[in-house]
Specification:
Layout lengths: L1 H15 L12 E7 L3 E10 L2 E11 L2 H4 L3 H15 L1 H6 L3 E8 L5
Parallel strand pairs: 1-4
Antiparallel strand pairs: 1-2, 2-3
Length: 108
């Protein structure tokens, strides 16, 4: 009985998880960029039904030389990396509603 209850909870959680969706031409998109000590990443979201639905994600492990960059330089690098790898999504969607920038750090 406990296993069945756990299964139904898990199933309920899986049904509400956002999935990556294709972009719609002209749709307003949001770009999130983040940087940590050894990697940068970016993700494009579309806002639908008051939810942010992921469209695409890119990340890059930083070589040793780029790991020494200042945080602002890493965030700029994340934006450059995102524009290069997410160009086709930007061409479909000329409207960028918001750019969120986050610095991430791992605490050991």
């Amino acid at each position: 009985m406990e296993a069945e209850t756990a299964y139904h909870r898990w199933k309920g959680c899986m049904e509400i998880l956002p999935t990556i969706t294709p972009p719609v031409r002209g749709e307003i998109v949001l770009l999130y960029v983040a940087a940590s000590f050894d990697e940068v990443g970016a993700m494009i979201f579309a806002e639908k039904r008051n939810m942010q639905i992921p469209i695409y994600f890119v990340s890059k492990a930083l070589p040793e030389v780029e790991q020494r960059y200042a945080e602002s330089e890493k965030l700029a690098l994340a934006i450059v990396y995102a524009t290069r790898h997410l160009r086709r999504y930007a061409e479909l969607n000329a409207s960028l509603a918001r750019l969120n920038i986050e610095k991430t750090s791992l605490i050991n």
